[in-house]
Amino acid sequence: MFTLTHPQKRQLKALAHHLKPVVIIGDNGLTPAVMYEIVQALDRHELVKLRVNADDREARAQMIAEICAETTAVLVQRLGHVATLFRRNPEAPRIELP
After folding, report:
1. Within a domain: residue 88?
2. Cβ neighbourhood burial of 96 (10 Å; 0-12, 13-18, 19+)
3. Whether the Cβ atoms of residue 50 and residue 80 lie closer than 8 Å to each other
4. Mean pLDDT over residues 30-39, rounded?
5. Alpha helices of 1-98 — where are they, by DSSP H?
6. Does residue 38 lie in a domain region?
């Protein structure tokens, strides 16, 4: 997993501002089907927003950390129930980072 510099995070936050959550994690939590959809979304878009519908703040943080670990994505930003993730697609990069 790689880390992002502050200017890179700032650029990704600006790009993600208008995006809507692509995957919504509901009451069933992180099922294999949900993880598959997250991986597919990261492969296609590189920058995605997720909505984690968990009541407890710690449960949300744990789910987001688990997603980042399993998908090798980097957490760009987390605001309430919405998390923005970035993972570079080495075969077809879409986003240029400074």
Report:
1. no
2. exposed
3. no
4. 95
5. 6-16, 32-45, 57-71
6. yes
What is the reported pTM? 0.92
> Has residue 1 been placed in a domain?
no
CATH of the domain at 48: 3.30.110.60
Q: Look over the chain and give the mean of its residue pLDDT values, rounded to a whole number.
A: 93
- For residue 97, the model assigns a pLDDT of 86
CB 87 within 8 A of CB 72: yes
- In angstroms, the CA 83 to CA 61 distance is 10
What does residue 86 show for φ and ψ, rounded to 5 degrees? -135, 135
Mean pLDDT of 68-86: 96
Range of the domain at 60: 6-82
- Does some domain include residue 89? no
d(CA 86, CA 2): 10
Confidence of residue 59 (pLDDT cuts 50, 70, 90): very high
Tokens of 36: 């598959």
